[in-house]
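User: Can you help me understand a structure? I only have the sequence.
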Amino acid sequence: MFQIRRGAACDWAESTNGLLHRPSKRGDGRFAEKPERPLLVESGRPAQDGASRSAAVPFATPPLTSAGMQLTFTKRSGKFDELLVQRDGLPAETVTCPKQGIIPHDMIHYAIESTVEHRGFLSLLREGRPVAFTTTGGDVEVAIERLVETFQAEMWGGRVPASDLLAVYEHACGDSPLVAPVSAADVEQIRAKLDGLTEQWAALPIGKSLSLSF
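Assistant: Let's start by predicting it. Here is the structure, written out as tokens:
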């Protein structure tokens, strides 16, 4: 099992060749011309707790213990927005969402987890896990967090070819077999959802909310 580190900062930028790269550590504000790999996730990999990564994991989502979940994002002034999580048979809980210049981090989770058949943070919440900044998950949940960070970086730095984004994601997951594969068609569906959510969130006045069913 792993501790999923959610919303960690990723210092990525788009270079002249269109790939997302880490900033160089030369201190001059320029980017490395030829990094060894397309991208490294600055937040680092979560430590393994005595368990090896699986060579193969079923793609199907396991049965859920809760019938449904409502996510209500409220735009606030200041440095934080707010997410209200409402689940059947459970008390409502609130998540504080640091503003990051784009849509909230958990809204990116929604776009991804409502598209691919892999469990992530929102899937764990829907199963009844308590709302917290970190939650316990397995290899698939950790991989989905890396995918969220990859799309988040693209939203900050600019759109790249789907093949480049997938290469970035696969590298962020490490050298072990990929447990949560994503297709180019998935990438385009996720991007379309992110574009729609970005438009709705930008038009939302302070104090108003956007509700999503998951």
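Now, to help you interpret it: The chain has one domain: 2-45+99-206. Confidence is low (pLDDT under 50) at residues 1-5, 7-66. Let me know which part you'd like to focus on.
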